[in-house]
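HUMAN: Ready with one sample?

ASSISTANT:
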Amino acid sequence: MKNRITFTSMLVAFALLAGLSPAMAGSAWTDYDAASPLIIRYVGAETIHTLQVTATTIVQITDTTTTTTTYNGFTLAQVVAALAAAEDDEGDKEWEVIYWAGIAADAVASNDLIVAAATSVGREWNTVVKWDISNEKHYDCVVSHMVGNDVVGSQKIMDVFGEPTGTGDATVSIYVDGVRKYYKTITSPVYVYGVGYATNVADNSIDLADYVDLGDGVDVGKASIGFVRVARASTATTGGIGVNVSE
């Protein structure tokens, strides 16, 4: 029994060191303005490899070559393709890009991405590109991880929780490798009694745990990218969303 406990503890410790939740259970949380539609890294040999986000562009500098992607009016698929096509001075393509809290068909317009200063991007996967919640009006929470070149997914999404602050109906979707596996619309606002029970007052707040029932859970798989998206119909401001996962 002693050896078995020690071995289990070693597995849990290894998972934590790798940035993973133990496979038996875990949770993830993402605040507003913190979700990344894509992750990116540079795998070449140049000394300079930076990425900058403006209100309308993403600028990559590789050695002395500058590649500017004007994303206004693009889909996320076009953004991913453009970033991966950036070249260095010799014409080599050495940037790798993966969809993360986003799907290929997502529209990307001016100010949909958080402005970020030029950041050196190395061989570790980088999340410098982030959705701007007030413009995109959706909250996203990824349950998968990257370990080296490999995607490590969670086996099942069991619960969704948190408060996606904003107004209008909330649409909850779960995506696995870009395919929607769950969909639910939460009507908002609801009307509650005001002071003295005289007038009904609109309540726009949504506690996701009160509305989302996933039953036996939604399968993600060990090598898939899974994320939850909650979109508000009118406005999105602060708050955040989280998920619980199990094996």
About this structure: The chain has three helices and 20 strands.
